[in-house]
Amino acid sequence: MRLPTEAEWEFAARGGMAVETTVFEQATFPMPEGPQRYVWYAGTDSSNNELNAVGLLKPNPLGLHDMLGNAGEFVLDAFRLNKYSHLHGQAGGYIVKGGDFRTALADIRSAARTEYLPIDKGGERRDKATGLRLAVVPGSLPTLARLQAVRTLWPSLAQSSGNAQALADPAKEIDAIAKDISDPALKKRIGDVGNVLKANIQARNEQRDRSAKSEIRVGAYLAQRSWKIAPRFGWSSGL
Predict the structure, then answer these.
(1) Quick one: 20 and 122 in the same domain?
(2) CB 115 within 8 A of CB 121
(3) pLDDT tens digit string along 89-121?
(4) Does one domain contain both 90 and 182?
(5) pLDDT per residue over 61-80, tens digit each?
(6) Considering the domain boundaries, does residue 83 fall inside one?
Protein backbone atom coordinates (compact mmCIF):
# COMPACT_ATOMS: atom_id res chain seq x y z
CA MET A 1 0.00 0.00 0.00
CA ARG A 2 1.07 3.55 -0.62
CA LEU A 3 -0.31 7.05 -1.05
CA PRO A 4 -2.02 7.53 -4.42
CA THR A 5 -0.44 9.86 -6.93
CA GLU A 6 -2.31 13.08 -7.66
CA ALA A 7 -3.45 11.65 -11.00
CA GLU A 8 -4.73 8.44 -9.35
CA TRP A 9 -6.50 10.37 -6.61
CA GLU A 10 -8.19 12.73 -9.06
CA PHE A 11 -9.22 9.86 -11.34
CA ALA A 12 -10.99 8.22 -8.40
CA ALA A 13 -12.49 11.49 -7.12
CA ARG A 14 -14.02 12.32 -10.52
CA GLY A 15 -15.71 8.93 -10.81
CA GLY A 16 -13.19 7.04 -12.95
CA MET A 17 -14.66 4.63 -15.49
CA ALA A 18 -18.07 4.80 -13.80
CA VAL A 19 -18.90 8.13 -15.52
CA GLU A 20 -18.92 9.39 -19.08
CA THR A 21 -16.01 11.51 -20.34
CA THR A 22 -18.08 14.71 -20.34
CA VAL A 23 -19.06 14.10 -16.70
CA PHE A 24 -15.49 13.16 -15.74
CA GLU A 25 -14.29 16.59 -16.91
CA GLN A 26 -16.69 18.53 -14.68
CA ALA A 27 -15.49 20.37 -11.56
CA THR A 28 -17.01 17.71 -9.28
CA PHE A 29 -18.64 14.33 -9.67
CA PRO A 30 -22.46 14.34 -10.15
CA MET A 31 -24.45 15.26 -7.03
CA PRO A 32 -28.10 14.82 -8.03
CA GLU A 33 -29.38 15.25 -4.47
CA GLY A 34 -27.36 18.41 -3.83
CA PRO A 35 -23.84 18.91 -2.41
CA GLN A 36 -25.06 18.73 1.20
CA ARG A 37 -25.70 14.99 0.69
CA TYR A 38 -22.19 14.30 -0.66
CA VAL A 39 -19.69 16.82 0.75
CA TRP A 40 -18.81 18.23 4.19
CA TYR A 41 -17.89 21.87 3.50
CA ALA A 42 -17.69 25.06 5.57
CA GLY A 43 -20.92 26.46 6.94
CA THR A 44 -23.81 25.67 9.26
CA ASP A 45 -25.74 24.01 6.42
CA SER A 46 -23.05 21.32 6.10
CA SER A 47 -20.13 20.52 8.42
CA ASN A 48 -20.85 23.29 10.95
CA ASN A 49 -17.07 23.76 10.82
CA GLU A 50 -16.37 20.37 12.44
CA LEU A 51 -14.75 17.14 11.29
CA ASN A 52 -17.35 14.43 10.74
CA ALA A 53 -17.28 10.64 10.76
CA VAL A 54 -16.46 9.07 7.39
CA GLY A 55 -19.29 7.44 5.43
CA LEU A 56 -22.27 9.44 6.72
CA LEU A 57 -22.88 11.07 3.34
CA LYS A 58 -23.48 9.52 -0.07
CA PRO A 59 -20.48 8.19 -2.05
CA ASN A 60 -19.21 9.28 -5.46
CA PRO A 61 -19.93 7.12 -8.58
CA LEU A 62 -17.12 4.71 -7.63
CA GLY A 63 -18.60 4.15 -4.18
CA LEU A 64 -15.93 6.23 -2.38
CA HIS A 65 -17.06 8.35 0.56
CA ASP A 66 -15.73 11.80 1.49
CA MET A 67 -13.40 12.23 -1.49
CA LEU A 68 -14.30 15.92 -1.41
CA GLY A 69 -14.56 17.93 1.79
CA ASN A 70 -14.39 16.75 5.43
CA ALA A 71 -10.61 16.05 5.54
CA GLY A 72 -8.00 16.89 2.93
CA GLU A 73 -5.93 13.95 1.72
CA PHE A 74 -2.19 13.67 1.14
CA VAL A 75 -1.02 12.32 -2.21
CA LEU A 76 2.38 10.97 -3.17
CA ASP A 77 3.48 13.95 -5.24
CA ALA A 78 5.57 16.86 -3.99
CA PHE A 79 3.82 20.21 -4.48
CA ARG A 80 4.75 22.08 -7.63
CA LEU A 81 3.12 25.19 -9.04
CA ASN A 82 3.94 25.79 -12.69
CA LYS A 83 4.29 29.55 -13.07
CA TYR A 84 6.35 31.39 -15.66
CA SER A 85 7.58 27.99 -16.92
CA HIS A 86 9.17 27.21 -13.54
CA LEU A 87 8.03 24.69 -10.93
CA HIS A 88 7.65 26.35 -7.53
CA GLY A 89 7.17 24.72 -4.14
CA GLN A 90 8.75 24.46 -0.70
CA ALA A 91 11.31 21.75 -0.06
CA GLY A 92 9.38 18.95 1.61
CA GLY A 93 5.97 20.37 0.72
CA TYR A 94 3.34 17.84 -0.41
CA ILE A 95 0.02 18.09 -2.22
CA VAL A 96 -3.24 17.82 -0.29
CA LYS A 97 -6.40 17.19 -2.32
CA GLY A 98 -10.14 17.36 -1.82
CA GLY A 99 -10.61 20.35 0.47
CA ASP A 100 -11.93 19.92 4.02
CA PHE A 101 -14.70 20.95 6.39
CA ARG A 102 -13.28 24.50 6.45
CA THR A 103 -13.40 24.89 2.65
CA ALA A 104 -16.17 27.00 1.12
CA LEU A 105 -18.53 25.16 -1.21
CA ALA A 106 -17.48 27.42 -4.11
CA ASP A 107 -13.90 26.15 -3.70
CA ILE A 108 -14.77 22.43 -3.59
CA ARG A 109 -13.62 20.80 -6.83
CA SER A 110 -11.67 17.70 -7.86
CA ALA A 111 -8.76 19.65 -9.34
CA ALA A 112 -8.18 21.86 -6.27
CA ARG A 113 -4.84 21.35 -4.53
CA THR A 114 -3.03 22.93 -1.60
CA GLU A 115 0.52 22.67 -0.29
CA TYR A 116 1.21 21.19 3.13
CA LEU A 117 4.57 21.02 4.88
CA PRO A 118 4.45 18.04 7.30
CA ILE A 119 7.70 19.04 8.99
CA ASP A 120 9.04 22.53 9.62
CA LYS A 121 11.68 24.06 11.92
CA GLY A 122 9.37 23.41 14.87
CA GLY A 123 9.18 19.67 14.12
CA GLU A 124 6.27 17.53 13.01
CA ARG A 125 3.08 19.41 12.21
CA ARG A 126 -0.47 18.23 12.96
CA ASP A 127 -3.71 19.33 11.32
CA LYS A 128 -7.07 17.78 12.26
CA ALA A 129 -8.42 18.56 8.79
CA THR A 130 -5.67 16.70 6.89
CA GLY A 131 -5.50 12.93 6.52
CA LEU A 132 -4.76 10.32 3.88
CA ARG A 133 -6.29 7.55 1.80
CA LEU A 134 -4.16 4.54 0.86
CA ALA A 135 -4.01 2.87 -2.56
CA VAL A 136 -3.50 -0.87 -2.90
CA VAL A 137 -1.06 -1.52 -5.74
CA PRO A 138 0.59 -4.63 -7.22
CA GLY A 139 4.19 -5.45 -6.49
CA SER A 140 6.76 -4.24 -9.01
CA LEU A 141 9.18 -6.32 -11.06
CA PRO A 142 12.32 -4.14 -11.08
CA THR A 143 14.66 -6.54 -12.90
CA LEU A 144 14.52 -9.00 -15.79
CA ALA A 145 15.69 -11.76 -13.43
CA ARG A 146 12.75 -11.11 -11.10
CA LEU A 147 10.33 -11.09 -14.04
CA GLN A 148 11.70 -14.41 -15.30
CA ALA A 149 11.38 -15.93 -11.81
CA VAL A 150 7.71 -14.93 -11.67
CA ARG A 151 7.09 -16.36 -15.14
CA THR A 152 8.65 -19.66 -14.05
CA LEU A 153 6.55 -19.90 -10.88
CA TRP A 154 3.26 -18.73 -12.41
CA PRO A 155 2.27 -22.00 -14.20
CA SER A 156 2.73 -23.99 -10.99
CA LEU A 157 0.47 -21.69 -8.95
CA ALA A 158 -2.79 -23.19 -10.20
CA GLN A 159 -1.43 -26.73 -9.89
CA SER A 160 -0.40 -26.18 -6.27
CA SER A 161 -3.85 -24.83 -5.39
CA GLY A 162 -5.30 -28.34 -5.72
CA ASN A 163 -8.44 -26.98 -7.42
CA ALA A 164 -7.55 -24.64 -10.25
CA GLN A 165 -10.99 -24.90 -11.84
CA ALA A 166 -12.74 -23.78 -8.66
CA LEU A 167 -10.36 -20.86 -8.20
CA ALA A 168 -11.27 -19.63 -11.67
CA ASP A 169 -14.66 -18.72 -10.12
CA PRO A 170 -13.96 -17.41 -6.59
CA ALA A 171 -17.69 -17.17 -5.77
CA LYS A 172 -18.15 -20.91 -6.41
CA GLU A 173 -15.02 -21.66 -4.38
CA ILE A 174 -16.45 -19.76 -1.39
CA ASP A 175 -19.73 -21.68 -1.72
CA ALA A 176 -17.79 -24.96 -1.75
CA ILE A 177 -15.82 -24.00 1.36
CA ALA A 178 -19.02 -23.00 3.18
CA LYS A 179 -20.57 -26.43 2.51
CA ASP A 180 -17.65 -28.18 4.27
CA ILE A 181 -17.98 -26.10 7.46
CA SER A 182 -20.13 -27.40 10.31
CA ASP A 183 -20.02 -24.28 12.53
CA PRO A 184 -23.25 -22.36 11.66
CA ALA A 185 -21.85 -18.97 12.67
CA LEU A 186 -18.68 -19.39 10.61
CA LYS A 187 -20.68 -20.77 7.68
CA LYS A 188 -22.90 -17.68 7.76
CA ARG A 189 -19.89 -15.35 7.84
CA ILE A 190 -18.33 -17.09 4.85
CA GLY A 191 -21.67 -17.00 3.06
CA ASP A 192 -21.93 -13.25 3.68
CA VAL A 193 -18.45 -12.78 2.20
CA GLY A 194 -19.55 -14.79 -0.83
CA ASN A 195 -22.63 -12.61 -1.30
CA VAL A 196 -20.52 -9.43 -1.19
CA LEU A 197 -18.08 -10.92 -3.70
CA LYS A 198 -20.92 -11.91 -6.05
CA ALA A 199 -22.40 -8.41 -5.83
CA ASN A 200 -19.00 -6.85 -6.61
CA ILE A 201 -18.47 -9.17 -9.58
CA GLN A 202 -21.92 -8.33 -10.92
CA ALA A 203 -21.31 -4.59 -10.49
CA ARG A 204 -17.95 -4.91 -12.28
CA ASN A 205 -19.54 -6.80 -15.17
CA GLU A 206 -22.34 -4.25 -15.48
CA GLN A 207 -19.82 -1.41 -15.48
CA ARG A 208 -17.78 -3.18 -18.17
CA ASP A 209 -20.91 -3.68 -20.27
CA ARG A 210 -21.89 -0.02 -19.93
CA SER A 211 -18.41 1.04 -20.98
CA ALA A 212 -18.52 -1.27 -24.02
CA LYS A 213 -21.94 0.06 -25.05
CA SER A 214 -20.69 3.62 -24.71
CA GLU A 215 -17.70 2.89 -26.95
CA ILE A 216 -19.99 1.27 -29.54
CA ARG A 217 -22.32 4.28 -29.52
CA VAL A 218 -19.42 6.68 -29.99
CA GLY A 219 -18.01 4.55 -32.81
CA ALA A 220 -21.40 4.37 -34.51
CA TYR A 221 -21.86 8.13 -34.23
CA LEU A 222 -18.42 8.86 -35.72
CA ALA A 223 -19.04 6.40 -38.53
CA GLN A 224 -22.39 8.02 -39.29
CA ARG A 225 -20.84 11.50 -39.32
CA SER A 226 -18.04 10.33 -41.61
CA TRP A 227 -20.60 8.79 -43.95
CA LYS A 228 -22.55 12.06 -44.16
CA ILE A 229 -19.61 14.41 -44.72
CA ALA A 230 -17.66 12.16 -47.11
CA PRO A 231 -19.26 13.57 -50.32
CA ARG A 232 -18.30 17.14 -49.30
CA PHE A 233 -14.63 16.26 -49.53
CA GLY A 234 -14.83 13.99 -52.54
CA TRP A 235 -14.44 10.84 -50.46
CA SER A 236 -16.13 7.65 -51.52
CA SER A 237 -18.78 6.55 -49.04
CA GLY A 238 -19.34 3.18 -50.67
CA LEU A 239 -18.41 -0.09 -49.02
Answers:
(1) yes
(2) no
(3) 777 789 999 999 999 999 999 999 999 988 888
(4) no
(5) 999 999 999 999 999 988 87
(6) yes
Give tens-digit pLDDT for 18-58.
999 999 999 999 999 999 999 999 999 999 999 999 999 99
Angle between helices 184-229 and 170-179 (to 10 degrees): 170
Same domain, yes or no: 37 and 96? yes
Angle at 223 between CA 219 and CA 225, to 5 degrees: 120
Same-domain check for residues 84 and 193: no
Count how many domains the chain has: 2
- Note whether residue 47 is domain-resident: yes
Are 41 and 112 contacting, i.e. CB atoms less than 8 angstroms apart? no
Tell me which DSSP letter residue 148 carries.
Answer: H
What is the domain range of residue 173? Answer: 169-232
Compute CA distances 113 → 24, 116, 207, whole Å: 18, 10, 29
